[in-house]
Amino acid sequence: MLVFIVRRVIISFFILLAATFVMYLLVANSGNPLQDLQESRAPNREAQIEARIRLLNLDTPAPLRYFIWLRGAAGCLVPFALECDLGQSIQGQDVTALLSVAFSQTLQLVIAATVLAMVLGITVGIVTALRQYSGLDYTVTFSAFLFFSLPIFWVAVLLKEYGAIRFNDWLADPTIPIGVAVVLGTISGLFWMIVIAGDRTRRVTTFAAAFVASAGALWLLSETQWFADPGLGIVVITVTAVGLAFLTTAVVAGFTYRNVLYAALAAAGIGIVCHFALDSVLDDPSGLTIVLLALVTVAVGMGLGYGLGGLQRRQAIQAAVLTGLGTGGLLFVDRLLGAWDSYSDRVGGRVIATIGARTPNFQGTFWEEGLDRATHLLLPTIAIVLISFATYTRYTRSSMLEVLNQDYVRTARSKGLAERGVVVKHAFRNAMIPITTLMAFDFAGVLSGAVITERVFGWTGLGTLFVTSLARVDPNPVMGFFLIAGTAVVVFNMLADIGYAFLDPRIRLS
Amino acid sequence: MSDPTTPGSIPAAAAVAGDAQGMNVVARTQAQMVRRRFFRHRAAMAGLITLLLIVVLAFSSIGFASVPGWWDKDYFSIATVENRGRPTLSVIPTWLGGDGMHLGEHPFGQDNVGKDYFALTMRGVQQSLTIAFIVGLVGTVIGTMIGATAGYFRGRVEAVLMRFTDVMITIPLLVVAAVLGRRYGSSGIVVLGLVIGLVTWTGLARLVRGEFLSLREKEFVEAARAAGTSARRIIVKHMLPNIVGVIIVAATLAVAAAILLEAALSFLGFGVQDPDTSLGKLISTYQTAFSTRPWLFWFPGVFIIAIALSVNFIGDGLRDAFDPRQNRVRD
Amino acid sequence: MTDPSLPVGAPLPDPAAGGVNQPEIIESAAEVHVATKLEETAGPGEKEVLRVEDLTVSFPTDDGLVRAVRGVSYAVHEREVLGIVGESGSGKSVSSMAVMGLLPKSARISGKILYRGDDLLKKSAKQQRALRGKKIAMIFQDPMTALNPVYSIGDQLAEAVLSHEIMPRKKALARAEEMLALVGIPQPKKRLDNYPHEFSGGMRQRAMIAMAVINNPDVIIADEPTTALDVTVQAQILETLVQVKDEVNAAIVLITHDLGVVAGMAHRVLVMYAGKPVEIAETDRIFYHPRMPYTAGLLGSIPSLEGGGGGSRLRPIVGTPPSLINLPQGCPFSPRCPLATDVCHESEPPLAATDELGHVAACHHWDKLADVDDPTVYFRTESEAV
Ligand SMILES: Nc1ncnc2c1ncn2[C@@H]1O[C@H](COP(=O)(O)OP(=O)(O)O)[C@@H](O)[C@H]1O
Ligand code: SF4
Ligand SMILES: [Mg+2]
């Protein structure tokens, strides 16, 4: 196994090396970096041209110039010992400095979006595979096809218009006209009708219940001016946390043996109690406090699972930890929303942002700054998620269908294993094996996918750096961008291979 | 392989026939089955019809090359902007309280210098489709050639080709396409299509190689080799026909992806350059006009989606037609 | 890959090659010596454990309704071994999957499946599940694919126990170890941690048997348990099955397309054709006095059975089984039957009593078979016929 990994690392390294060479030549060939100067009428034109030629070593032929670049780049491999030098931009800025700023922005954008797309996509993919040819399956299939036929920038522009500009306008007087509530209620009714399915009476009741609940909730939210100062409130949190406890239990263990449920419920309960107990600590915490609290949550969850799990200790630990973290997440969101009012005042009511990663020069409490980030992340994240989500659902669905057709799934059923175990333990585990490859590709590809999203939403991340530099025929930042994107591809493919081996004993043990 | 005298067990031929869903109806040929399954795939048929309509509309309306079309306006003449350039297209009949069904002077409206937006959009459709088709074709041909060669010859040839593929896969498609587009965007759409096609073959190459590796071990290939058939002939005559389904499906999906790729490149400014236009370029040009003249944004967008969606559905239908097993489950 | 049951240099069992592809020099499994003879084991009891009544299963497909099972009835008594024999596609697997409740949702099922008098088809999904693997267990044809590649053998065996009873994992694993020992896997404790790919085909099938009996079931349905295995291993697996059956006091429904397999194994045999039983009788009657031409045809393709064709050439039944979508009118075997007359083409013969009590056959002309000494004679070419 170790040999396998080492071999894989070495091969990946050489592949990346070759790729940078190809890329370097392509970039060098992509245009004339002197064009703007040659067309300029500045009196010191010649001198400027001369200076740029020296800055970019343009007098050396491109294949040789690559090795100059490579020598500097090699320094990046050995941190601290050598200097990491990726050259300079046309304007003479250090590429490494440019990259590090841009990288952190892009990372913020990409991580949340990818994780969200993965979780949602895989879940929906499994559900549609289990209910193949149902109304839900057809709906999701059509939506998935629609999503990956959407030009991401087109969606992004729409999101900007409707998700931000008009939404913010509406926030000034957040009332929902009764007609809109009825329409949205109908949509929600149809949605739940498709999800729940069943016979005719069941459909009608589902529709009616969902319609009344949604339209009613909207009306209530509108009447109480909820959108002016949103929040979850302890009732919603409690109900959701208990629901979460049941859900995780249903997924990891089922209800035949109650101990798992007790552990999960205890985790939810403790979370809610802490909501009150930690009130003052959470007024303006630091990021570190939040991380510590998350760790404590995990520890407490494990303790609960261990203590209450009985014969299903392992499952109880999983359920308790997941429920605990979920409850924590709810409390976190509630707190963020708590800052809505003051945040809204400070940004002049334009809560959902359309440009950049943060409001410039914005300073506030932990929650206000958190909300600031969240509102900036919201729309670009939706744009990225839509498209990745489509890929994940389709892929998971077909992988699950393939696996569900395997003999060993039939064997699992034949021993009397409950359907939950058949799906979670046997089918899903095997279906995940090919999906790891997709995840790797997607995670790496998302960096370049962010290129467009960043452009539309004015994030000054890696994508913007790439586009502006390429437009100017500024080779070094482009190469810098590629070095990161290419490394991401290579590293994630490697991780996929290793994950593959981890998931599949036939590879692991050979 | 079937030895009818195998003792004590049921003859293989009978067993095989029995397994084929208990049918001894006249054996249909593979191609007929595929065609039948494809034409039964409703989404694929809808996609096919939509796509054909769009193609016919785009090429017949404003004509192409020197062939004139039935639409009386062109996509480059500047005219006076009437009624703020609003679209005159109306699809709601009068008895429904609409304006009646008519095209009007400028069905899709006019841009800010008065160009007819219908003609412009049709031009964009033509260009985008052309590029996507070239990209799909070039990528498929190269991918098939590289994959087939690597899979058939194995050994050093395979090592070299597949390592090269690995290197190319490392460069994200949008990135390399943008770099190439930066250089060749102004050389016209055919050149642009060709160079982008040159970098979109990697996935297919891997796929074809995998198929070839397993085909290679099949008896009919070994028989052909033993008979001294040339490698080229074995590949083209014996092996490729066996994976034509895989290739057609991949090619279709490649076209759908190319439509979106072209749009993205044009949006970033590395795709089609003036005076050419494309759907992506139209959206990019007019995105800032969204709040004042949303139609300039909607029409090309809807066409991109319609095309990409149609082609994706056609691809899905083809996949089901070639590989119906994928959709069967015993749950 | 060390399988003590495989002789050195023996070819690994090829999952793709069904029994139909055996090398011809090797004897049929009928002749492979099964050390534990069925007669030496505990005989059938009086009580019925499983009774199937007029079971029909059909699948709606694009091409029409596939009528895979068209009225199967049989009963299995305690400790009895019932053989079900028929060409591939005759509905053997579908009917047994129906008993297990494992058919796809699209299947249309009717009839009765009585386990100790209770109709399984009337039970809720939950009640069905409680019986599945606990009272009625199943062994499948292809051990290469029947085990989940990502879990250890011990895990998968323990899971069978834990599906029906919550207990500490350790206890379940101990039970798994016991079962592995029972089915003759050496070093069972060590083997618990192995993954399926570390087992040979024969060992995997033993593990499947262990999994089937781990909950002491009353009935084991073995669907072609030896078809995918190397011929040399087949007899060992059958022997293990007989031994284990005795250990847990279970009845077995042994499904096969190979009459040779049921020879030394089954108390009674049910022959299926085109989704219907066409003959049911004690095993000896089936072999020596078949009353249905199809059975005789199957016998005719077995070499060197007493009363068989001596030195004359074996001949398989010509033709293929009928389409289950458009069944021909009359006897479904008529297109292939050398005894067929007009009446055969017009009406389908019901399963009816023959010259001996308990021997039923579905043939208009069963008496013609009773008239000759060797019924397989109809399946030889003229020149070879005695
Ligand atoms: N899910 C299904 N859908 C349609 N036809 C099926 C399905 N499962 C089995 N069949 C058909 O039912 C018939 C009987 O199959 P089976 O019981 O597996 O035969 P065997 O006797 O070889 O075990 C076959 O013709 C098979 O094609
Ligand atoms: S009924 Fe007629 S056709 Fe059918 S098996 Fe008997 S003799 Fe043959
Ligand atoms: Mg079968």
Automatic annotation (TrEMBL), chain A:
It holds the Pfam family BPD_transp_1. The chain crosses the membrane at residues 9-27, 107-129, 136-156, 176-197, 204-222, 234-253, 260-278, 290-309, 316-333, 374-392, 435-458, 478-503. Keywords: Cell membrane, Membrane, Transmembrane, Transmembrane helix, Transport. It comes from the Bacteria. This is ABC transporter permease. The keyword Acyltransferase does not apply. PANTHER family: DIPEPTIDE TRANSPORT SYSTEM PERMEASE PROTEIN DPPB-RELATED. Belongs to the binding-protein-dependent transport system permease family. The lineage of its organism: Bacteria, Bacillati, Actinomycetota, Actinomycetes, Jiangellales. It comes from Jiangella anatolica. It is found in: Cell membrane. CDD domains: TM_PBP2 (cd06261). One of its GO terms (biological process) is transmembrane transport.
From TrEMBL, chain B:
It is a multi-pass membrane protein. One of its GO terms (cellular component) is plasma membrane. Signal peptide: none annotated. One of its GO terms (biological process) is transmembrane transport. Keywords: Cell membrane, Membrane, Transmembrane, Transmembrane helix, Transport. InterPro entries: BP-dependent_transpt_permease, MetI-like, MetI-like_sf, OppC_N. SUPFAM superfamilies: MetI-like. It is found in: Cell membrane. Gene3D superfamilies: MetI-like (1.10.3720.10). The chain crosses the membrane at residues 43-67, 129-153, 160-181, 187-208, 240-261, 295-315. It comes from the Bacteria. It holds the Pfam family OppC_N. Residues 125-315 form the ABC transmembrane type-1 domain. PANTHER family: D,D-DIPEPTIDE TRANSPORT SYSTEM PERMEASE PROTEIN DDPC-RELATED, OLIGOPEPTIDE TRANSPORT SYSTEM PERMEASE PROTEIN APPC. Belongs to the binding-protein-dependent transport system permease family. This is ABC transporter permease. It comes from Jiangella anatolica.
UniProtKB/TrEMBL annotation, chain C:
SMART domains: AAA. Residues 50-299 form the ABC transporter domain. It is a peripheral membrane protein. Keywords: ATP-binding, Cell membrane, Membrane, Nucleotide-binding, Transport. Pfam families: ABC_tran, oligo_HPY. Belongs to the ABC transporter superfamily. This is Dipeptide/oligopeptide/nickel ABC transporter ATP-binding protein.
